[in-house]
Amino acid sequence: MPPHLAVDGNTNSNHYALSCTHTAGEANPTWWVDLGQSYVVDRVVIFNRQDCCPERLNPFNIHIGDSDQVSTNPQCGGDHRIALNQPTISVSCQGMWGRYVSVRAPGSYRILSLCEVQIFPAAGVNVAVGKTAFQTSTGMPPHLAVDGNTNSNHYALSCSAIYPPEANPTWWVDLGQSYVVDRVVIFNRQDCCPERLNPFNIHIGDSDQVSTNPQCGGDHRIVLNQPTISVPCQGMWGRYVSVRAPGYRILSLCEVQVFPAAGAWLTWDPSWVVGSAGTPAVGNGVTYDAAKALDGDTGTHWNPMGTPQHYNNWYIVLDLTAPQTLTRIAVNNYGDTAHDIAAFTLHKSQVGSPYSWEGVVSVSTVQGGTHRRQEVGGFQGTARYWMFVITRTFSGWQPWLTELDLYGLPVDNWWYVDLDRQWAIDRVTVVKPVSVDLNPFFIHIGDDGQNVSANPQCGQNHSIAASQSEVTIPCGGMRGRYVGIRLTRLGEPRRLEFSELEVYPVSDEANIGGINVAALSSGGQCVDASENVTTCGGIIDGQLTPRPGQLGWLSSQGVGSWVQLKFDGYYFINRAKIAQSTWVTGQIRTIRLTFNDGSYEDVELGQREGSDLYDVNQVYNDDFLFSTTKTDSVKMTVLTTYAAFTSGFIEAQFITAYPEG
């Protein structure tokens, strides 16, 4: 199938919809695109085939560079792999430069099929590189995480490390000044132990007691076979960015990159003015009112008459029509010292008249005698209503203000629905009044209920014609509990309005049940245990068959010992597979499975042939079915043992029920 199908804007993952490229079986099949010029590439997003054969994509390589002999260009990371039940993968390329981007399937006989390839240029600068870093204790020094070296091999001396284990190990960087943070990118260790990073928290704020700063999202998790994760922080503000591993943990970071949010100067709109001081001067048929300071024309100006000298309270009240986050302001003086601004303040109000003003920034360093543009930053505020107050002019007489500019960050307006459990989503239909402009909008699907816009996107920018009342968006079986719709248009306040959001699961119900939600790869975690809590994560690595040297989780207590597993959301489960230690002195007989509502199931495990060595021909796990239970956690408590000295688990799996009907 022709190569242009991977860049035709159609992300349909069904090959038979004629939306996917396809090579013959050959050695190292390769697809590439000529971007026409060189770009700094932030990430490459690939849409994989879903109607058949998704495994064909794994593994794949990405090359980026200026040579049309594309496989000789530098490689973005190593071998990448996509989760087979996910239609897309986003590969971070961290500012690689090139005109040609290629996808290659290495091997002597491979087939390469791509339903869409999207390439996003880099935006912003990593403000963490070379800055001063700290950590709660030192195994490898903290500056290695901000040295610009993204090598993920610990032994290349490119990764910070906090070891031996400690409670809540934390690393942080002092950016030197406060920034509005768009995202934090973390490079994880790959030569060993990538699971040590999960879960982790990010805090951003102005306190050097970094764990007290506001948290960016909740518990984050990196896919273990991916070297990087990009965490959106939605315009949080702060000088200090920290990474914390909650629990008794080791923390290793190969690089941490911090990207400030990009914004834009708002388009002038004189209709924003809803109040101002004084009486506007009139001359030659022109009214010099406050709207003249927001018309984009430096040939006009605001001249508030009727105020005494040293009035020092010349104000303009603005209604931006929707909440807007401002981080910079610019003024143009008239250029004569008599009427030039020397100082001003900026205030915000969350409510309309009567307003409730809060101070945002005070500036006393405006230069007179020049009409050039003067910008001021270093603040952040979000509100619909703003008041600009001139508190001093150089002569004390009324100001002649030529222009007032505001710099805004993207403002997300979003809405979401909680489906009460994880579903595989086939499509989402948005219904709106014909008169409403939604373009562009985004659909997010995932399990983060605190920050829905941080969930994976179904496709990219979506649009609906003004004359249409609905649009259906295919999501290819993306999984999630929360489905959200979000608006963003840089520098422009917007209103989210729609009539209906319809969410349809995949028709094959088998794609919904049968998921091991305890697995690390599904977002599960072992959060506590009666002892040896640092090793209990080993029982949810998805391996029911023991491997040589695998001890799993062991307890010296026997009866009464326990582990607590936590899922990444609420699920309906009705099946468990549990593998226990085979040691002669550590065989469990019965355990109690306690769910978050206090209900429980008691199950009995079979006795195994006692040995410290594993027999690959022996089945080590027991498989249980029980009444369907909605829960986000399970506590496993040993009630009785075949031998009462110790106990232990190799693996625990809790599996979602298939929906009825």
In brief, what are we looking at here?
With 661 residues, the chain is an all-beta fold. The protein has 5 domains: 3-121, Jelly Rolls (Sandwich); 132-261, Sandwich (Jelly Rolls), CATH 2.60.120.260; 270-407, Galactose-binding domain-like (Jelly Rolls, Sandwich), CATH 2.60.120.260; 413-511, Jelly Rolls (Sandwich); 520-656, Jelly Rolls (Sandwich), CATH 2.60.120.260. The protein is 0% helix and 46% strand.
Tell me about this structure.
This protein is 0% helix and 46% strand. It has no helices and 33 strands. The strands form seven sheets. Strands 12, 13, 17, 18, 19, 20, 21 and 22 form an eight-stranded antiparallel beta sheet that branches. Strands 27, 28, 29, 30, 31, 32 and 33 form a seven-stranded antiparallel beta sheet that branches. Strands 5, 7, 8, 9 and 11 form a five-stranded antiparallel beta sheet that branches. The two termini are 39 Å apart. The mean pLDDT is 85.
- Total helices: the number is 0
Shape: globular
Q: Report mean pLDDT, rounded to a whole number.
A: 85
Give the proportion of residues in helices: under 10%
CATH architecture of the largest domain: Sandwich
Number of strands: 33
Structural class: mainly beta
Query: Largest sheet, if any?
Result: 8 strands, antiparallel
Q: Structurally, how many domains make up the residues?
A: 5
Subunit arrangement of the protein: single chain
> What is the CATH class of the largest domain?
Mainly Beta
Gyration radius (Cα, Å) is: 29 Å
Q: Looking at CATH, which topology of the largest domain would you report?
A: Jelly Rolls
Estimated share of beta-strand residues: over 45%
